[in-house]
Design a protein that fits this description.
Blueprint (H helix, E strand, L loop, with lengths): L2 E16 L6 E16 L3 E5 L6 H8 L7 E6 L2 E2 L5 H8 L2 E4 L3 H4 L6 H12 L5 H14 L6 H4 L8 H13 L5 E5 L7 H18 L2 E6 L2 H7 L2 E6 L2 E7 H6 L4 H9 L39 H5 L5 E4 L2 E3 L8 H11 L2
Parallel strand pairs: 3-8, 3-9, 6-7, 7-8
Antiparallel strand pairs: 1-2, 1-4, 4-5, 9-10, 10-12, 11-12
Helix pairs in contact: 4-5, 7-8, 11-13
Bound molecules: adenosine-5'-triphosphate (ATP) and magnesium ion.
Length: about 350
């Protein structure tokens, strides 16, 4: 399949102000640090990683809600980083985003029918009101709020959290985009409705031929949904591979730690315990050695002084670790030990 999205050497550095009023200090936060990946048409790529590793910053740059510090984002052959605002407005019809909290993104003063009508008013203004209403009704049925008339006159607060997220999804697909970026679309929802939303996204992918970028901190959600998974740690991608490769044959010690705490990947809708590794992520230091060194149980001298580069292991599978081969046999046991 041809590529729909290519992210090349993307970086975001924030300036964080710290200190007292009299002794101001500026620190660079390397939120996203030289990441590259691509998504093929029809594919779902997951990005997983713990809080603060740069997932939302990545998605916001791709969706042009934030400017990059460096790098390129090529969508359908067009470099978004070199596109004008008016070009981006046109492209936006074809790339839409689903946010974590539907309550934040649906205008509480508008009825559902008007919320869904809004993108059509902007991008398909020549369509008659009846034509737009027909599309609104169709999409409401596609997101399984049936009969649509029962929901369209309501306000967001008159819907449950899951129903609100369905409306947010409907709004993002009503213009039939080719690409959807979803930032933790189920993490604010009740556990009981999460599976329904994930299955809806899979159905819509099939129905509308969507390509997706899915951000989650939950490996079981990623394994259920995604064709490929990129594992992010402290602003960098440390491993990327097919879902099978990541789950069955993880090579980076951090990926191994993630996999080891997810005891039963089939029960993806259950609440997961947080991964337990010593130490914390610190994005203010630009590492000279491996970014994972402070938490890695198998570190050697070289890990402190040399940044491992991404190494291609097989088709689709790459990892950034000096010792991905030598210790991979016994590491899972150690990680198991670390996470209990
Ligand atoms: N506007 C900002 N100004 C300064 N620092 C920021 C800003 N936005 C994000 N950061 C920092 O960038 C890093 C990455 O943040 P980001 O929100 O992308 O992480 P995340 O992986 O989405 O985390 P979470 O899982 O908690 O949503 C963090 O250290 C965060 O504090
Ligand atoms: Mg986030």
């Amino acid at each position: 399949m041809p590529l729909l999205l290519e992210v090349k050497e993307l970086e975001k550095v924030f300036i964080k102000k710290t200190g007292s009023m009299f002794k101001r200090k500026k620190t660079d936060v390397y939120a996203v640090n030289n990441i590259s990946f691509s998504i093929r048409k029809g594919e779902i790529l997951g990005i997983i990683g713990e809080s603060g590793c740069g997932k939302t910053t990545t998605i916001r740059m791709i969706m042009r809600l934030m400017k990059e510090s460096n790098g390129d984002i090529i969508f359908n052959g067009k470099n978004l980083c070199a596109s004008s605002d008016s070009e981006i407005t046109k492209i936006r019809k074809d790339m839409q985003m689903i946010f974590q909290d539907p309550y934040d993104t649906l205008n509480p003063g508008m009825r559902i029918v008007d919320i869904l009508m809004e993108p059509l008013n902007v991008h398909e203004s020549s369509l008659s009101r009846e034509g737009k209403y027909k599309k609104v009704k169709e999409i409401t049925e596609a997101i399984e709020l049936i009969p649509a008339e029962d929901y369209l006159q309501r306000y967001p607060h008159q819907l449950s959290g899951g129903q609100r997220q369905r409306i947010a999804i409907a709004r993002s697909v009503i213009l039939r985009p080719s690409f959807i970026a979803a930032d933790e679309p189920t993490s604010m929802l009740d556990v009981s409705v999460r599976a329904g939303i994930l299955n809806l996204l899979l159905d819509l992918r099939d129905k509308f031929g969507l390509t997706m970028l899915l951000i989650t901190h939950d490996l079981s959600t990623a394994s259920y949904m995604c064709n490929r998974i990129a594992v992010m740690y402290q602003g960098s991608i440390v491993e990327i591979g097919s879902t099978q490769q990541i789950i069955n044959s993880p090579k980076h010690p951090y990926t191994k730690a993630l996999v080891s705490v997810v005891k039963d990947l089939n029960h993806f809708i259950k609440n997961r315990e947080k991964m337990i590794l010593d130490g914390e992520v610190d994005s203010t230091k630009r590492a000279s050695g491996c970014i994972f060194v402070s938490r890695c149980p198998n570190q050697e001298h070289i890990c402190h002084s040399k940044l491992p580069i991404m190494e291609t292991l097989s088709e689709n599978h790459s990892v950034a670790c000096h010792f991905h081969q030598s210790f991979h046999e016994n590491l899972s046991q150690e990680m198991e030990h670390l996470s209990t």
